[in-house]
Write a structure and sequence with these properties.
The radius of gyration is 19 Å and the shape is globular. Helix 5 packs across helix 6. It is an alpha+beta fold. The protein folds into two domains: 170 residues, Jelly Rolls (Sandwich), CATH 2.60.120.10; 79 residues, Arc Repressor Mutant, subunit A, CATH 1.10.10.10. The strands form three sheets. The protein has a four-stranded antiparallel sheet with strand order 1-8-3-6. The two termini are 19 Å apart. Strand 4 and strand 5 form a beta hairpin. The chain is built from ten helices and ten strands.
């Protein structure tokens, strides 16, 4: 769904061939990713392993079992704004965010984007969310390191560890609730309110409580995609929020100046 009062969103010209020529496009993109991994020599340091400190949903699982999970994983590095998967890739993997931020969402046939969420260190995404979710796209927001687990291995751990299964179900429930909330915002809230709700949510998730800065780097286009608007409309409202002293932004960094003012707008609708 897109803002009916706004101009069409950005077109992904460089990736449209992937949408129209699935087989050749996917094969070529996967080869590029493989070469990038080989050149980087991904010997991931010990502190980049998956553990219960970085991934709280693993708390309570034996260290020996977590080591088994790590032994099945492959680590991949992504540059800024690099696609992890696209529609029609049929990705059968589960991704653990070790470092950086990942944007997940959907593309229509013309290449317009609707971003659903931004996931940070300690979060997980991928095929376990179901076919409709994995048929979208995932893209790095900044330099990102992921630990990747095959779907079969992931399902084996779900069967073996009931505690792990319960926590993954909880994550799925939270994602579904977030999607329902997003749908309600798209239907019942105007663009300015949606932007304020997004900023408030990101501040709660990745905000520096000392200076109000949101630690995730976001362009105006990123924000537009996350609220289903055009970049021009999003820029207009961000400028208004800046002039009112509610936020400040510079070089893709947004800082909340007045949290009460932001909360007041979000509570109106």
């Amino acid at each position: 769904m897109y803002d009916i009062n706004a101009a069409p969103g950005r077109l992904l010209k460089s990736n449209r061939s992937v949408l129209t020529a699935k087989n050749n496009g996917r094969l070529q993109r996967q080869n590029v990713r493989k070469d990038a991994i080989d050149n980087d020599s991904l010997e991931v340091p010990e502190n980049n392993s998956v553990n219960h400190l970085s991934f709280p949903f693993l708390k309570g699982i034996k260290e020996s079992d977590i080591r088994i999970i790590n032994s099945r994983m492959v680590h991949q590095r992504y540059s800024k704004k690099e696609y992890i998967y696209l529609p029609y890739d049929n990705s059968e993997k589960v991704y653990f965010v070790i470092h950086g931020n990942v944007e997940i969402g959907y593309l229509d046939e013309s290449g317009r984007e609707l971003s659903i969420d931004i996931l940070s260190q300690g979060e997980v995404f991928g095929s376990f969310m179901g076919r409709n979710f994995s048929s979208g796209f995932a893209r790095s927001v900044d330099k990102t390191v992921l630990a990747v687990l095959n779907k079969d291995d992931f399902e084996e751990f779900l069967e073996r560890y009931s505690l792990f299964s319960v926590r993954i179900l909880k994550i799925m429930s939270q994602r579904i609730n977030a999607l329902e909330t997003k749908l309600q915002n798209l239907v019942f809230s105007d663009v300015k309110t949606r932007i304020c709700k997004l900023l408030f949510s990101l501040y709660q998730k990745a905000g520096d409580k000392r200076n109000g800065q949101i630690k995730i780097p976001l362009t105006h286009q990123d924000i537009a995609n996350l609220v289903a608007s055009s970049r021009e409309t999003a820029s207009l409202h961000l400028s208004e929020l800046k002039k009112s002293g509610t936020i400040a932004y510079e070089r893709k960094r947004i800082r909340i100046i007045s949290l009460p003012a932001l909360e007041k707008i979000t509570s109106c609708c």
